[in-house]
Design goal:
The chain is α+β, with helices and mostly antiparallel strands. The protein contains four helices and seven strands; from the N terminus they run ββββαββααβα. The longest helix is centred in the C-terminal third of the chain and has 27 residues. 13% of the residues are buried. Keywords: Membrane, Transmembrane, Transmembrane helix.
Amino acid sequence: HGPVPGGDPGVGGWHLQGSLLGLQVLAYNRHTYETVAQRLVITIVPAPGDEPPYQGEFLVGNRNVEELLPAAAREIFLQATAGVWERDDLHVINVTSALDRGGRVPLPIEGRKEGVYVKVGSRGAFSPCLASAASPQSRFRCSLGQQPLASCYDTFAPHFTIRWCNLTLLQVWPSPTAPGPAWGSGVLEEGGDFQPPTEVPPGDLLPGYLVTLLVPLAVAALLCLLLGHLMCCRREGV
C-alpha cells in the first residue's frame, strides 16, 4: 500500500479470496484529521513462466508509489526502460516505496516526492549502458559525489528522474531442486513377509540405580558428620 496525498497510510485489513486480494486502506489528514477509507480489490494473476534471470531495480526520485501503480504509468515506465535496456520483453516485477527501504519522509514542500523503487525483469542480458552505470567505476564516481558513467541517452527524462547511483542489477538463476523420495505403491510384494524388528534385550539398571542413590547419600552423610563436628566438638571450652 502507499500513502494517500495529504495523509498517512494505514491498513485496516486484507483477506484472500481465491485469486482476488481485498485490501482496505485507511488514511487521515494531518491538518484536519479527516479520515477516509477505500477498499481495493486486486486480481492476482500468476506470472507467465519462471522468474526472469535479468532484473534491474531503478529508484525514481520524482514519483510516489501510488503514481506508478496504475497500468498506464507502468507501461510508460517500461517504454522508457526499453530505451536504455534495448529489450522489448520487459515487465515490472515489483513497485516499492522508498520509505519502506529506509528512506526519509519528504518535507511538506511542493514537488517533493518520497521516491519509488521499480524492479524490471527481462530474459535478455543487460545493455552496455546499464552495465556501465552499475560498474565499479560508476560506484567510485558516486562515492565522490559525481555523476555515474552513462554511455547512452537517458530516455527516462523528463517524466522520470532516475537516481543512477542507486541502480541495482541482478542475475537470478533457478536453483537446482533436489530429487524427492521415490514413493512405492504401498502394497507388499508377493511372497514377502513383514519382519518386525527384534526386541532389544533388557539392560541391567542396577548399577546405575546404586550410583544414583548411594553417591548423594554418601555426600549427605559426610556433610552431616562435618556439621556435627563443628557444632558439637568445636564449642568454647571443648
